[in-house]
Amino acid sequence: YLHQHNIDYKHSNITDNDLDLLVRLFHQAKPGSGVRYLSGFLRRQGLRIQ
What is the mean pLDDT of residues 15-41? Predict the structure, then answer.
């Protein structure tokens, strides 16, 4: 379906360790934030995570 409609949806190539580091940094800066804010943070970093 995606290919048929020319929709390109690729995920970022990031290691588990690098992703863990970003998540830790985010939670240090915004300890009360939830998963939606984390998702937005990762998108602002240019990452597409599944």
Answer: 95
